[in-house]
Every structure is written in C-alpha cells, then in structure tokens.
Amino acid sequence: MSKHGRVLVAMSGGIDSTVAAMLLHEEGYEVVGITMKTWDYANSGGSKKETGCCSLDSINDARQVAVHMGFHHFIIDIRNEFGDYVIDNFVDEYLAGRTPNPCVLCNTHIKWSALLKRADAMDCAFIATGHYAVIKELEGRKFISKGKDDRKDQSYVLWGLSQECLERSQFPLGQFSKEEIRKMAFDRGYEELSKKAESYEICFVPDNDYRSFLKRRVDGLEERVAGGHFTDVKGNILGVHEGYPFYTIGQRKGLGTAFGKPMYVTEIIPQTNTVVLGEVEDLMRNGMVVRGINAMKYATIPEGLEVTTQVRYNDKGTLSVIHPTNDGNVQIEFYAHVKGIAPGQSAVFYEGDDVVGGGIIQSSLLTNP
User: Fold this and answer.
1) Average pLDDT, stretch 33-40?
2) Would you list the DSSP string of 80-118?
3) Which of 31, 204, 235, 336 could, after both became Cys, cross-link 39 (CB 3.0–4.6 A)?
4) Which CATH number applies to 283-365?
C-alpha cells in the first residue's frame, strides 16, 4: 500500500509533467500516469509535423518513463470531448470578432473534467499536473497562487478551476524553478528529457497559423469575409483587409498595407466586416467589463477590492479596483491606462500572488480619457 494514496498524473511526455510524476512517486504516492489525446493534427491539413502533447512521440515518451519508474500508464482519447467544445468555441469567438484563449477553456471544462472522471474510475484520490502554480487554503476555500518561478508561473490559465477541482488537485512543481526541474531530470538519469524543448503552441494549431486553421475549418470563410474595410477611429476608409476574423486587438504587423506610421488594430466590428486602426494611444483603456466570473479566494468578490488585474498571459498586471454588477459580471477600474485589452481573453485578479478570481473580457472601457 502506498504512503499517501493513489494519484492520477496527467503526463504529456514533456519535462514538467514527467518530473511531477517522478516527485510524487518518490514521495510515496501510488502514481497512475495518464496521457490525453486531444487532437489529431495529422488530419487537419496543417503544414507542420505533429508536435506537443498529442504527438505519438510525446505519448511514447510518457509511457517509457512510467515503465522505467514502475507505475501504470494509460492513454485516453478525448478528441470528441475536446473538439466539440474547445475548437468550436475557438472558431466561434474569432467569427464574433473576439480573441479566444483555448488553453483556459480546455483546463476549465475539458481536462479537469476528464481527469476527475478517470480518477474516480481508477480509485485515485487526487489528480496532478505539471503546472507551475501553488494551491493554498483560506477559511475552507482552496485557491491558486503564483508559482515560485515568475517566468514560468501558470496561475493565469487556472483561474477557472472550481472548488471541487482544487480539492483534489496537486501541483508538485509550484515551489521550484524551471532550472531546478531540469536538474532533477538530469540527476535522475533523464539527460535527453532535461534538454527537451518546450512547446508554446496551441495544441491544435502547432504551426501557430490560426488564420489558416480557420480557413480550413470554416467552408468558404475566406470568400465570405474578403474585401472588408480598414478604417481609422473616425470612420475614414484607409484600405481593404482580408477579413475581420484574421485580425486581433493590438495587432500591428501583418496588416498588408503601409500607412506611413505604426498603426494598430483597435476595434473589430463583425457586423460590417470592419477593422478599425489607430495609433498606440488609441489602444489605451482604463476599464473593462468581465463576464463568466469564477470567484476563487473568496466565496464572492467584495465590492471595491483592490487587485492587480492581468489581461493576457504575459501581462505584468495593473493595479485596479473591482466593482461587481447586478448581472453577475464585474467592472474593472484601472488606476493606469492599459494597452490592447482584447475581448475574449481572460482577465485574472490577484491579491499579491493569490488568485482572487477571473473571467472573460467582454468589453473594454475608456471612462475618462
């Protein structure tokens, strides 16, 4: 019998999830490894070889570690669960003129649900992943806090996890830096793994060309949206673009037209197939409305709570105050102007390193220019 019980570890074949499984195994847990097949990129028509968590090489890497360390490993196919929700949402959001964050959606609605379902079937008390984050507790509530390594912290993509998920989750890497994790793999004889490159692509768009993915996914999209207008913030026509779904808020490169000065996408209007361009100051906002709120540190987010709000994954965050609204959303008032707030992206609210909660950006605001 194991010292701490049985834990189901999500293993992608990469260094982080592999070392997470190693650490739990060494601590005395009965580890069961599981690799989830989420997407078959070979059938999607992309130009790049299949990579990342869905590739055959990654699946084999995860299995080899499990065999070497002496614990069970299973492969599960969740392509139907994944595709119906995450990919359809990805496409729908771009067609609505928004910028989706599929990794957050996958964590919240697909991966944790799939893991808990299999954990119950395999009599595992816990699930674990290789995310760089920490779970804390306050007055009976579990919540996410930032990991030790600021450069690798992944608390931003975990804001949507429920209390049920957090009660049974473990993040063994939260107290370590990436360099320490690589050394652990090397010291345990996994030299090749310790040097393994990281993958930052969306798993179903490994060539990072989301525009081509949309064109392949939606029949006739290119013809339907071609010929729309670029306008300035006053409505003056500046040129013709390729179609509004192929642009994102804050984009400067790849506009296909020279304007004589740096111009950025400041607004996308699907109804008229219009992409509005402006200068950098036209991207600045001092507020936003956030929907789909998941309160994490507190059962409800207090009115007037001061937080640091992060509006994208690599954003350092901006000091702000939260105002919950009667419709279940929140309005964020920033203490400084923030550049390039994109509807559809996640907004995550922090008290120090602790995640107060998060949601999906519905709209940006400019209340006092």
Assistant:
1) 85
2) HHHIIIIIHHHHHHHHTT----HHHHHIIIIIHHHHHHH
3) 204
4) 2.40.30.10
**b/e code 134-144 from CB counts within 10 Å (16+ = b):** bbeeeeeebbb
Q: Is 203 a catalytic residue?
A: yes
Confidence band of 44 (pLDDT split at 50, 70, 90): low
For domain 222-278, which architecture applies? Roll (2.30)
Partners of 320 in the β-ladder: 307, 334
Q: What is the pLDDT of residue 37?
A: 85
Residues 365 and 288 sit within 8 Å (Cβ to Cβ): yes
Q: What is the CATH number of domain 6-130+172-194?
A: 3.40.50.620
Tokens of 206: 């490994």
Catalytic residue among 53, 54, 106, 165: 106
Q: What single letter denotes the amino acid at residue 88?
A: D
Distance CA 108, CA 296 (A): 13
Where is 31: in which H helix or E strand? Answer: strand 30-37
Examine the residue annotation and report whether 124 is marked as an active-site residue of this protein: no
Q: Catalytic residue, from 53, 103, 124, 203: name it.
A: 203
Q: Phi and psi of 346, rounded to 5°? A: -85, 145
